[in-house]
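Trying the structure run again after the queue cleared.
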Amino acid sequence: DYLSRNVKGREGSNIQNIIVINTLGNQLLSVENNNNDYSKSEIDLTTFAKGFYFIQVEQNNQIMNYRIVLQ
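Done. Tokens:
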């Protein structure tokens, strides 16, 4: 099985960084967009165990936090 999550940026904006954090606060994955020429990014979560995770998205100098559950 292949599991991925898409994080879409707002139109006209760029995603600079995506970080996946576990419930203990450990950073598990960091994806940096060096190109700054797209507003959609895909991250592969197939190697992660089931449970709760936090995704932190940096976009236009703002940080947005999301909570996800892998089942």
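The first strand starts at residue 4 and ends at 8. Worth checking whether this holds up in the mutant runs.
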